[in-house]
Specification:
six-stranded mixed sheet, globular
């Protein structure tokens, strides 16, 4: 799908495989918020969600690998989900929703997140989306700065209801 040279090798973005789930869950759990809501000891709910995402062409689940020089594959070091949503508002515009963007802590600051979001923006444009949206927890000030540097604006107030 996408490759880029990074320190120590190549970053490769690809569609997630079921075998990637443990690494993906570990990435999601690797911060204060994720540690409290992700449960890697039981992967069955993640497997069900993975199958539903894979079955629907309006959703993409991607992982990034750090491929060492001379190798064909490497460990999963990043992940995100990209969904494409039709809407009546904005004159029937399509929008994309970016979710669960994570990069391994040891690789943050090397531009991997920027590469992933850039790919997601291009993919969204190629599918006719006129808007990309995401949510990020209000406590994630570093994430806010990251997305603002990429051109995102905090234009709305998001609300959630736990069910």
């Amino acid at each position: 799908m996408f490759t880029a040279d990074v320190d120590g090798g190549t970053f490769r973005l690809r569609h997630a495989a079921r075998a990637d789930l443990p690494a993906m869950v570990q990435l999601l759990a690797d911060d204060a918020l994720g540690a409290g809501r992700e449960a890697a000891r039981d992967l069955e709910p993640y497997r069900r969600a993975f199958e539903a995402i894979q079955a629907d062409p309006a959703h993409l689940l991607l992982v990034g690998e750090a491929v060492p020089p001379g190798k064909n594959a490497g460990p999963v070091v990043a992940t995100f989900q990209l969904s494409f949503l039709p809407g009546i508002s904005r004159q029937g515009a399509w929008r994309s929703q970016l979710e669960g963007v994570r990069v391994a802590a040891s690789l943050r600051g090397q531009g991997i997140g920027k590469l992933m979001v850039g790919w997601a923006v291009q993919e969204s444009r190629s599918r006719g989306c006129t808007l990309m949206q995401l949510t990020t927890h209000k406590s994630r000030s570093a994430a806010h700065r990251f997305y603002e540097q990429l051109g995102f604006e905090a234009s709305h107030v998001g609300m959630k209801l736990a069910l």
